[in-house]
Fold this protein.
Amino acid sequence: MTKSSLLNADTEDLKELLSNGRSYHVPPYQRDYSWQQEHWEDLWDDLKAAETSDSDHYMGAIVVEATDRKHFKIIDGQQRMATLSILIVACIDYLFELATDDIDAEANRERAALIESSYIGAKDPSSLRITPKLRLNANNDDFYQFNLTHRNPPAGGLRSLTDSEALLWRCFQYFRQSVRDKFVDSRRGEDVARFVSHIVTEKLVFISVRVQDQFSAYTVFETLNARRLDLTETDLLKNYLISVADRLSRSQMDLVLRRWAHITHHAGMKTFPEFLRHHLNSRREYVRQKQLFKTICADITTVKQVFDLLDKLEKDAAWFEVLRDYANPFWFDYDGAREHVRVLNLFNVSQCTPLVLAAKDTFSNPDHVVELLRDCAVISVRFNGVGNRSTHALEEVYNEAAQAIRRGEATSPRAIRQKLRPIYIPDDEFVADFSALRLKNHGRAGKQLRYLLAKIERQLSEQDISDETMAATVEHILPENSGADGWEEFSTEAHDRAHDRIGNYSLLEKKLNERVAGNAAFEEKQIAYGQSRYQTSASLTEYGQWSEAAIAKRQAGLAKVAKSIWSIPL
């Protein structure tokens, strides 16, 4: 594709968009109408501001795909186009209301007819039905054409409508009332017509982006700084798949749409691009986020391939969902997996997902999947949680390991571990990283700290404890606040260097913690520490004083313990 054919962009108002016989349609597989009252109110406020301003009001980009010189598919912008159309219908309705009330009746009917033919569509002389300038998607267009454009209330009331149809009708009611309120004093049809022709259709300005195909549209969205990037990206992927399958019957297309809805329900609309990348990276060479759409277009060109992809996506989406939710009952069938998934969630790790997706398709023994999850959890603590290394390397190594499983080169957890060697932080580096680790005791970092301390305590005291269930509190030995009495030897700078180091934390019973004030001197705290059943506190009685050197020495000792906890056999 040449640069010149990728896209054309112009600044156009609504009058220009709808001129010269142009028409627009929302493909049947696009989202239903979804704007709510807050969006209608924002648009109405924009119009009022534009009316009193000398400058135009920018409405954002509308992206369309040309089917020929005058007919366009709306790729992005359907919510705005539909809402503006309904606003104009509300103005037409008010003009007919004035005519019914015998206010300049003939002129107002003519004004209504001219606005209708210019912006909604011209009437067919035989059927007197409007040939629309805008068609909505398969779920909304019948109601839009037969009810809204003709201002006919739904025969069965709002209860008879789908959710999106009800929104369309409420949108019409909102703007009908807004128009009435605006012109209640004058009740002059010429004012209403002027509002439509000079404000609604001329002062609201769009960047009109016309692309040649959906791949061009995807490229455009990669460069536009749109708030709805992920959602639009997901829609484009869906639209492409269904455009490939557009030869299906309506019932078959409905099945495709239902399956797509099921997949996105499990994967999440906003996280679907991430899920799709993990899905692809579990089955082929490493694919970057920007290559997703191009890869799908190259791989999926037939209806059979669409259904094959949906089959695979559906299975993988279920796993993608539970890999982000360690509490899901799904893990009851994988003894021990819940804890490893919890660690992955705690340290916000998802890069191993392609490997897990490949393993679940290959290993019939659930214990092998659990073992693999444990390896991923250990690597994540070493690499992400303690080492805080760049995650880019993770994705490529996990991708290669997933491919090794698919190719039959790695048929056991042990063989997979060999593939993961490049991201397994060596013991000496892990000890050095842990010896320098600092964590705040709040938010996500506080939960990670509590987890690390509980695992170390379990190793030291051989108690069966967990950070999820233990009653212990996390104790700052050197108080969190600087300048406390009894801690004068720590300057402000020394305090800042030391107070959130792992070596300055222990686990302590809540009652013992309450017995000595948090800012008490070290000698006073040691009395409570000596009564604790937690080894991380009880061992503090061995220290004569608490200093930066003591904290560093203790943390180095904890690092050696950590090395034995978070390890995998290679």
